[in-house]
């Protein structure tokens, strides 16, 4: 049978098949893009997340809201030992970032301002800097006028324990030492104040 001998409906069937294929591809594309959006922006009010690659080995259970925050011991860039357990009974804001992370630099002044307002309630801020040495972090903190606790995490040991996938990431820990909330991405001042108020109760 030649092309001209084929039934008249064959062209319509091909067109219908092509339209169906295009429709499936379009729906698939929308779903994939939607999934990527949700992964990249886990907090609907967050913005500016920088992906990170962890080199340290994950230890302990992954962080979970309502569960005790995993303790760690480290040394601040000023040479002082620091751990979560020594601050139990106080609200703790554990924030992960880096001086090379533009979104982290952008929110640093607001972190300092929020800390200045909340420290009268006993709030402790511990900033952990991924893949950086103590000197670089200390110089950065001095340059920006940041006076809370700063910890360099050059091998991402602490970040790996907390399963940090992007920075900035914020862990708010209540007075009982339990993880109250996890927020990924840049926070505006209002959201910082609200989170600190919750863990200061």
UniProtKB/TrEMBL annotation:
Major subcellular site: other
Membrane-traversing stretches: 21-39
GO molecular function: antioxidant activity; oxidoreductase activity
InterPro entries: AhpC/TSA, Thioredoxin-like_sf, Thioredoxin_domain, Thioredoxin_ResA/DsbE_sf
Thioredoxin domain span: 63-197
The UniProt record lists the keyword Iron: no
Location(s), subcellular: Cell envelope
CDD domains associated with the record: TlpA_like_family (cd02966)
Short name of any one Pfam family annotated for the protein: AhpC-TSA
Keywords: Cytochrome c-type biogenesis, Disulfide bond, Membrane, Redox-active center, Signal-anchor, Transmembrane, Transmembrane helix
SUPFAM superfamilies: Thioredoxin-like
GO biological process, one term: cytochrome complex assembly
Keyword Protease: no
GO cellular component labels: cell envelope
Domain of life of the organism encoding this protein: Bacteria
Protein name: Peroxiredoxin
């Amino acid at each position: 049978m030649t092309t001209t001998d084929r039934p008249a409906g064959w062209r319509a069937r091909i067109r219908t098949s092509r339209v169906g294929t295009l429709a499936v591809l379009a729906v698939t594309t929308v779903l994939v893009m939607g999934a990527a959006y949700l992964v990249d922006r886990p907090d609907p009010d967050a913005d500016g997340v920088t992906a990170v690659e962890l080199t340290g080995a994950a230890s302990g259970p992954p962080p979970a809201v309502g569960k005790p925050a995993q303790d760690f011991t480290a040394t601040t860039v000023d040479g002082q030992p620091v751990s979560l357990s020594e601050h139990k009974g106080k609200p703790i804001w554990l924030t992960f970032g880096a001086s090379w992370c533009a979104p982290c630099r952008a929110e640093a002044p607001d972190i300092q301002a929020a800390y200045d307002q909340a420290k009268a309630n006993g709030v402790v801020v511990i900033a952990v800097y991924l893949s950086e040495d103590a000197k670089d972090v200390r110089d950065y903190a001095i340059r920006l006028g940041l006076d809370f606790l700063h910890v360099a995490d050059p091998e991402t040991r602490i970040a790996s324990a907390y399963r940090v996938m992007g920075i900035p990431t914020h862990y708010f820990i209540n007075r009982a030492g339990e993880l109250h909330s996890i927020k990924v991405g840049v926070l505006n001042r209002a959201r910082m104040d609200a989170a600190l108020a919750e863990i200061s109760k």
